Amino acid sequence: MDNKYKAIYTKQHYGLVGKHSAVKVCHWTKSEMTGGEGCYKGTFYGINSHQCIQMTPVVNACTENCSFCWRFNGFESMRISDEDDPEFILEESIKAHKKLLSGFKGNPKVSREKWEESQNPKHIAISLTGEPTLYTRLGEFIELATRRGFSTFLVTNGTLPSVLERLDPLPTQLYVTVAGPNRKIFNDLLNPTIGNAWENFNRTLEILPSLSTRKVIRHTLVKDVNMPYIDEYAEMDRKAAPDFIECKGYVHVGQSISRLTTENMPSHDMIMDFSRKISEKLGYVFTSDRKESRVALVSKDPSRAKLDFNSLNIPAVQAVSV
């Protein structure tokens, strides 16, 4: 990666892949590897953190510079000038992920079973940083990942609805971040870099019901900025008709500390109150929560929350050597 931010990404323990992709081992993967708690996606959806690859095909391009984002926001572009092949990105992401995990093999806290399972990843979270729908071959990447035996979670800010309309195949689960209850807060908090971002975002909400996959609205909630606004969020959620709604509290860490304060972190009680009110407005069901992550899950049908991997018809993953 010929990039002036390469040193920053390397210092932050990213595994850089090709010209514009990256992986990073998250806190919860490390925790589950050493016998601790896994990510809330395990609690909500049955995803094993120690078998999850967190990656992005667009490490340094985005259509927003969100104030609450704790990742490095050195975004200067909304396009990739020279795209890597999706098969290359997938193969090299798996290798980079395994390389980042290699130090855990000799850790006395890591069981042999956990280590061996970690070398057979089952899930790809396309959510690390940047806006993944800027990668024009995203559908090919998802198709290759599915063929290789991975479930896929794609997180988007919803500013490129035309990409979602054409995306084939769709991921196992599609997340759309909904953090601006009105145009002003949307623009002030998410700092979009395209002039029609608000209109595009609302178009995404409109097309979500037509997309044949599991859909999640994620409300990233910042105290004294974009919450509660229950009625406004409920109207958006009603339009999008998602299968699940994640209500996630802002955490004052990483790059966000230069833009927000500790006072902007909602308590877990606030998140729970917000979640219950949203579920009542929509006729959804409060399903689960994780206090340490300041997140709660609201579901249209709670029985469908945990992924049934057998029903996904995903073939067994093939091993890739480091």
Main beta-sheet annotation = 10 strands, mixed
Number of strands: 10
Shape label = globular
According to CATH, the fold-level topology is TIM Barrel
Query: Stretches where pLDDT falls below 50 for ≥5 residues?
Result: 315-322
**What is the count of structural domains?**
1
Mean pLDDT: 93
CATH architecture: Alpha-Beta Barrel
In whole angstroms, how far apart are the ends?
Answer: 19 Å
Radius of gyration: 19 Å
Helix content: 25-40%
List its salient traits.
alpha/beta, TIM Barrel, 11 helices, single chain, 32% helix, 322 residues
Write a structural description.
This protein is α/β, with parallel strands linked by helices and 322 residues long. The chain has one domain (6-304): Alpha-Beta Barrel (TIM Barrel), CATH 3.20.20.70. It has 11 helices and 10 strands. It has a 10-stranded mixed sheet. Strand 4 (123-126), helix 6 (138-147) and strand 5 form a beta-alpha-beta unit. The chain is globular and about 50 Å long. Residues 315-322 have low confidence and may be disordered.
Short description:
With about 325 residues, the chain is α/β, with parallel strands linked by helices. It has 11 helices and 10 strands.
Note the topology.
Elements: H1 6-11, E1 15-17, E2 21-23, H2 27-33, H3 40-45, E3 52-56, H4 86-101, H5 112-118, E4 123-126, H6 138-147, E5 151-156, H7 161-166, E6 173-177, H8 183-190, H9 197-207, E7 214-221, H10 230-240, E8 244-249, H11 268-282, E9 285-290, E10 295-299
Parallel strand pairs: 3-4, 4-5, 5-6, 6-7, 7-8
Antiparallel strand pairs: 1-2, 2-3, 8-10, 9-10
Helix pairs in contact: 4-6, 9-10, 10-11
